[in-house]
């Protein structure tokens, strides 16, 4: 069962970057992300059928805004100009920001963590050195990664219901409301004709990315170690880049070097215990995140 659950978060979450690209051929990023999270969240809450306090809903709104509306919705917006593989690589730097925050608050975190920070930073810099790699999309993904980090750090201090599935549903429903509102305010329109591919990719994000991925993740949290679950951090970008190359998306010429450096750094950052264990555990995606 553990192998199946790991395979689910490795392959499904790694493939969602490409799925987003296909959805964007017909639907605008904010509207499609808002609908996706609203549907997934509603289905989870209908399954759980439990009540929550206003304070818990406030926590869900904060996490939905930072974690999904900005942390995931902004990545979908960025994929209008950035390939799915490059988006996954830049997005893989989240452990870097968490490690830097821990460095700032707790002092020198240990040689392995510092090595991880250096390697991941060099990988990101190598990606940025490629002509045309720096654009608004890349900047948006970096900001999304920082927003995800802020949500990670805030999460342990929030009032949440006992059921992680319930809070996942509340968070996704809140994100759906925020993203839909932003879509209406920005007056988004269809980006192309509605195709079976776009609709199928959206359904894949809802059911495979959010529901199956979340279920597998929740099960792993209860039956495995945080370190093992966090290995998706460096497997997902590899899957995303491989799929991106397979379908012929343009990748920066430095993508290969960036993969090696970023993933080597993330391996060091996510397999060592020099970070605060509470923060480290909260880093693991909270809502079946498919980032995006």
**β-strand amount:** under 5%
Distance between the termini: 25 Å
Radius of gyration: 18 Å
Biggest sheet statistics: none
Weakly predicted, low-confidence segments: 273-277, 283-290
How much helix is in the residues?
Answer: over 70%
Mean model confidence by pLDDT: 83
Task: Specify the overall morphology.
Answer: globular
Number of helices, counting only DSSP H or I runs of 4 residues or more: 14
Provide the structure class: mainly alpha
Number of strands: 0
Tell me the number of structural domains.
Answer: 1
Order of helices and strands: HHHHHHHHHHHHHH
Describe the 3D structure.
With 292 residues, the chain is an all-alpha fold. It is built from 14 helices and no strands. The chain has helices at 2-23, 29-48, 54-70, 73-78, 84-91, 94-106, 111-128, 136-154, 164-185, 196-223, 226-229, 232-246, 255-271, 277-283. The longest helix is centred in the last third of the chain and has 28 residues, at 196-223. The two termini are 25 Å apart.
């Amino acid at each position: 069962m553990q192998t199946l659950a790991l395979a689910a978060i490795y392959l499904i979450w790694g493939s969602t970057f490409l799925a987003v690209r296909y959805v964007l051929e017909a639907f605008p990023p904010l509207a499609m992300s808002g609908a996706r999270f609203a549907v997934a969240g509603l289905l989870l809450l209908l399954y759980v059928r439990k009540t929550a306090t206003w304070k818990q809903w406030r926590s869900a709104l904060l996490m939905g805004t930072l974690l999904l509306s900005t942390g995931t919705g902004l990545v979908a917006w960025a994929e209008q100009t950035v390939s799915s593989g490059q988006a996954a690589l830049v997005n893989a730097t989240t452990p870097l920001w968490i490690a830097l925050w821990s460095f700032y608050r707790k002092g020198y975190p240990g040689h392995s963590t510092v090595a991880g920070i250096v390697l991941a930073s060099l990988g990101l810099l190598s990606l940025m050195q490629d002509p045309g790699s720096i654009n608004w999309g890349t900047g948006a993904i970096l900001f999304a990664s920082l927003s995800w980090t802020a949500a990670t750090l805030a999460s342990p201090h929030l009032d949440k219901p006992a059921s992680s599935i319930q809070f996942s549903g509340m968070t996704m429903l809140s994100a759906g409301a925020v993203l839909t509102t932003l879509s209406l305010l920005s007056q988004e329109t269809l980006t192309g004709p509605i195709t079976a591919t776009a609709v199928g990719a959206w359904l894949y994000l809802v059911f495979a990315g959010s529901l199956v991925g979340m279920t597998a993740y929740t099960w792993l949290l209860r039956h495995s170690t945080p370190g093992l679950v966090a290995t998706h951090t460096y497997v997902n970008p590899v899957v995303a880049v491989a799929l991106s190359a397979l379908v012929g998306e343009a990748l920066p010429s430095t993508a290969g070097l960036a993969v090696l450096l970023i993933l080597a750094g993330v391996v060091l950052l996510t397999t060592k215990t020099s970070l605060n264990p509470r923060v480290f555990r909260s880093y693991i995606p909270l809502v079946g995140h498919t980032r995006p």
